[in-house]
Design goal:
The complex is a heterodimer. By secondary structure, chain A is an alpha+beta fold. Chain A folds into 2 domains: about 5-95, START domain (Alpha-D-Glucose-1,6-Bisphosphate, Chain A, domain 4, 2-Layer Sandwich), CATH 3.30.530; about 95-130. Chain A is about 20% helix and about 40% strand. Chain A has 3 helices and 7 strands; from the N terminus they run βαββββββαα. In chain A, strands 1-7-6-5-4-3-2 form a 7-stranded antiparallel beta sheet, with helices on one face. In chain A, helix 2 (about 100-110) runs antiparallel to helix 3. Chain A is globular. Chain A starts with a strand and ends with a helix. Chain B has 2 domains: about 5-75, Arc Repressor Mutant, subunit A, CATH 1.10.10.10; about 80-110. Chain B contains 5 helices and 2 strands. In chain B, strands 1-2 form a two-stranded antiparallel ribbon. In chain B, about 65% of the residues lie in helices and about 10% in strands. In chain B, helix 2 (about 15-30) packs across helix 4 (about 45-55). By secondary structure, chain B is mainly α. The chains are: A alpha+beta, B mainly alpha. At the A-B interface, strand 1, helix 1, strand 7 and helix 2 of A face helix 1 and helix 5 of B.
Amino acid sequence: MDHTVERELTVPEEVDEVWRSLAQPEWLGDDAAIELCEAGEVRAGERDGFVEEADAPRRLVFWWSAPGEDATRVEIDLDETEDGTCVRVTESRPLAILDGRDLAVEFGRASGDGMGPVALAGGARAGALR
Amino acid sequence: MPAADPADAVFAALSDVTRRSLYSLLGEHGEATATDLARELPVTRQAVQKHLGTLAGAGLVATRRSGREVLYRPTPAPMSEALEWMAEVGARWDDRLAALERQLARGRSMSP
């Protein structure tokens, strides 16, 4: 039910170095761009978007979409570990059904059955579109 | 038919507590008539039928006729869109993180 994908990678480099590497866009794919600052550009092929939050060197949040697709939110968190740095990626698709706040409230009330995060997703979407 | 974005109709249909109960009841029964379902819920048969209609509109429920009865059964089809999305997005991140790892490894071999 949850439209979220999570992936993790641990590399031996320190957090600062991994952050610098994120700025070299090749890893994102062909014809890619990434600016690690608020409102910066993010692009990979025909997929493009903007940075919502850049908290160097720990956290990057951006929104992007390919033509004809819903925008998705990507969170990248860098955490220091004993072995180096853990890169955690979460891409989520806010539920587009939240075209009315009433529904978000209804979902929120119906928490306890896995529906809770829906209201949060609605909030995140509203924030991004402001 | 589901709406343009199937997830819209699915989540809207499941936003109602009675419809969620109905859907999970159908899951337990496999197949049931509106009368069967109304017996297990504190709502009228007419209300059950209306809710089943909403679930059917979202593609969550399918029907077939058996003699003088209409049988409802749950269909997992609409959810597969979400699963497909997750598989696709996950595979892309596997690729990107592998590329990031290679990128870092190249930096490693170049540094003194």
